[in-house]
Amino acid sequence: MTDATKVTRTCLIVDDEPRLRQVLRRLMESDGFDCAEAASGAEAVEMLMQRETMIVLTDLRMPGMDGIGLLQAVRRHSPDTAVVLITGVSDIDVALSCLAQGAMDYLTKPFTLEEVRARVRQSLEKRRLVIENREHQLRLEERVAEKARRLEQLFLGTLQSFSEALEVKDPYTRGHSVRVSQYSAAIARELKLDPAGVRDIEIGGNLHDIGKIGVREAVLNKPGPLTPEEYEHIMTHPMVGWRILSTMLGDVPTALNIVRSHHERVDGRGMPDGLLGTAIPLEARIAAVADSFDAMTSGRVYRRGGRMSMEATLAEFQRCSGTQFDPEIVAAFAAAVRKGAIALPQAAPGTSELMSVGTSPRNMPTPPHSAEIRQRAG
Length: 378
Hints:
By secondary structure, the protein is an alpha/beta fold. The chain has two domains: 4-140, 3-Layer(aba) Sandwich (Rossmann fold), CATH 3.40.50; 170-338, Hypothetical protein af1432 (Orthogonal Bundle), CATH 1.10.3210.10. Helices cover 52% and strands 7% of the residues. It contains 14 helices and five strands. It has helices at residues 18-30, 41-50, 67-77, 92-100, 113-169, 176-190, 195-207, 217-220, 228-234, 237-245, 253-261, 282-297, 310-320, 327-338; strands at residues 10-14, 34-38, 55-59, 82-87, 105-108. The protein has a five-stranded parallel beta sheet with strand order 2-1-3-4-5, sandwiched between helices. Helix 6 (176-190) packs antiparallel against helix 7, helix 6 (176-190) packs across helix 12 (282-297) and helix 11 (253-261) crosses helix 12 (282-297). It is elongated.
């Protein structure tokens, strides 16, 4: 709405008595207002729709739409217009009712011209303060929103630095976290999650392996089979990551749930908490599928052969549906694949061709909690 100081001083006088309208018009025009007249509430509404009006002086009791009805219409269609109600009834309850419904002031007949001037000045000052306060609030909200955006950018930049530090430590993770984030988001959209939820899942997917910063490099990059002790050590990364990020991501519990619980299994044999079924957060069940898909379809130093084909991957997910993976998430993943929202990652230079279903992945220990898809610990 245009600021009050930039609007022509316009006034609409509404009364079914022509003589009273003329008296008020002469007064208002002598004070520099551009005045218009209406003989009824309905006529006044039509005129208000045609031009912006600073103040309305209206009789309370009129045939058809009365002053209260006009006041309500003004509040709906022109909330910055000040309304002063005029009546011959001296009733404090009526006055309070008018003010409660948004009138700026109230005049009782008979009135003096100076009294009208005083009420008009007071009403326009209230109007000015209301408009200025609203515009100040809008500017304040804009500044707060801009500051929040800048803080979020700095925060996400810090988290990205964590991910880049992990890529330096573990060459395999280069691109892995980004892909898991993208796959997780595609599954979440297939499940019709809201955009804010998808965004938080993207953040969690990008950070799900951050705890590997605390894993010994000799274990992280070991090309041969892991010993039971080494496997247990590498599987500490969900809790390590959760501890690292718990203070930073307190406002994004969805992302924290992914970091902590992406190695849980729906049969309760996962890590670190052994959660069962829907006790595993939905976002973690999503990330588990996305993480395993990338583990099966991207080259790893410990796997003999090469990447699994999409056909073999889908078959493996179906085989493990209901034990390692949530069947609903597996179905959403398959739907995203059919729609082209998820595809095989591009093979890195020097990696092997696609492996067949029967090709055995790395020969690693198989404790009771390990995945039926025997990926390393990705």
